[in-house]
Amino acid sequence: MSGSRTKAPGFAGGYLPQADPALLARLDELKARLQKLESAQDRESEAEAEALRGERDDLLLRAKLLQPEYSELPENRIATVAQIRAALPEQTTLVSFFTLPEKTIAWVVDREGLSLVELAPSRGELSDEVQGYRSAIAAEGYPAGDSGRSSRGVEVVDSGLPGAKSMSQDLYRSLIAPLVPHLRSARLVLVPHGALQQLPWAALQDPETGRFLAQDFTLSLLPAAGALVAGSKSTELQSDGPMRALVFGDPAAAIPSLPPLPAARREAESVARILGTTAKVGKEASESALRGAAASLSLLHLAAHGEQDSKEPRSSFLALAPDAEQDGRLKMDEIFDELRLRRRPLVVLSACQSGLGKRSGGDEIEGMIRAFLYAGAGAVVATLWSIDDEASALLIESLYQNLVAGRPAAEALRGAQLAMIAHPKYGAPFYWAGFALTGDPSKALR
């Protein structure tokens, strides 16, 4: 992020009183050098930049452990354990992960105390395992010869990798099983790092019981533990007043390569019926309409195409309908810089890969989730991969029925995922595990 953006709360964690000033100075040096290398955009510079990123991550861990006051930007402000414990909802445990070249560290925090647990997988091993697992899930969701399904993204093909079940259980053994003795509540707030940001946590399977993590815990994610503290102290953004929802489905995007999404239109209309409002579809689902309503919304639902630009993440966009004032491409940069969601709404992004993004210089990813949280969202439900239209519509309908019944957002999503697990056709993780909630797990419709 540029230095001019100083609103967003951010990453977690320092726990001891003093840090070496030279360490903090070196972090500043690395940041400046990385900015120059990343702007050069040549192969030699990228190789040096990758090495410096590894050094930066290792130093950043030391800063997190040793210096509560380190805050290159307010979004990188480090929260103390006491602040995190005070901000944690009752019966909730926070687990913050940090991947290192040789191992992974997890901090487990609840209202009773703090535990530090060393996990065996290295950064490189986790990267390979997470990507392999995601490919296996995709292969099982789109078996060979079944490429005709409608999804909001690219076609998924069979990878030929080992089964998703065995890979899921391996990840459970390495990431969750060592933490179980420290988990004293049924609600988990996870702060992933590195490749773990792309992991469908809900689908990790206990090899002893055969149960998915979502069956044993109510899950939510945070980009950083500090966001929990900042969210509990927010005074600028308000959530009171009558509930006002904006529901978009199948916008008439002016992009020839993007096909219509009839199931997304039906999804939006179904959501609107549940909420007692009218969906905006086609040309009515315009970027200008969203911008005009943003400040007063308590809920925003977008069932649309999402285009992820891995080379230029801030050029990634949600495809809405254009009009005389806007081009219909709601870019990540525009969400960061221009959108203001003043009532801390729940945002649901039922779009292709809306949850993914490129890592920035801390514990967060530059993705649509971060953009909407920065703009003021209280919580964001988004997807980790291209989703099947029919399965998505079922899950989303169940989610909103739970929300209208008064269940908090994290519990409402869990209930919808449990219903999908029991579904005779859509029980495989591909159809439900891509959805995750980031932000306030207790967010409810108001």
Describe the structure.
- The chain is α/β, with parallel strands linked by helices and 446 residues long.
- 35% of the residues lie in helices and 17% in strands.
- The chain has a six-stranded mixed sheet with strand order 7-6-8-12-15-16, sandwiched between helices.
- Helix 3 (81-87) packs across helix 7 (225-232) and helix 8 runs parallel beside helix 12.
- It starts with 20 loop residues before the first helix and ends in a 7-residue tail after the last strand.
Could you provide a short overview of the structure?
With 446 residues, this protein is of the alpha/beta class. The chain has helices at residues 21-40, 43-66, 81-87, 123-141, 164-175, 213-216, 225-232, 262-275, 287-293, 332-337, 368-375, 389-404, 409-421, and strands at residues 92-99, 104-110, 113-119, 187-191, 218-221, 245-251, 280-282, 299-304, 306-307, 317-319, 329-331, 346-351, 357-359, 365-367, 379-383, 435-439.
Helix/strand order: HHHEEEHHEHEHEHEHEEEEHEEEHEHHE
Strands of the widest sheet, in order across it, are 7-6-8-12-15-16
Please give the share of residues in helix.
Answer: 25-40%
- What share of residues are in beta strands? 15-25%
Cα(first) to Cα(last) distance is 32 Å
Shape: globular
Low-pLDDT runs of 5+ residues are: 1-19, 64-77, 143-161, 233-237, 358-366
Keywords:
single chain, 446 residues, alpha/beta, 6-stranded mixed sheet, 13 helices, 35% helix, disordered N terminus
Write the layout of secondary structure elements.
Layout: H1 21-40, H2 43-66, H3 81-87, E1 92-99, E2 104-110, E3 113-119, H4 123-141, H5 164-175, E4 187-191, H6 213-216, E5 218-221, H7 225-232, E6 245-251, H8 262-275, E7 280-282, H9 287-293, E8 299-304, E9 306-307, E10 317-319, E11 329-331, H10 332-337, E12 346-351, E13 357-359, E14 365-367, H11 368-375, E15 379-383, H12 389-404, H13 409-421, E16 435-439
Parallel strand pairs: 1-4, 4-5, 6-7, 6-8, 8-12, 12-15
Antiparallel strand pairs: 1-2, 2-3, 9-10, 10-11, 13-14, 15-16
Helix pairs in contact: 1-2, 3-7, 4-5, 8-12, 12-13
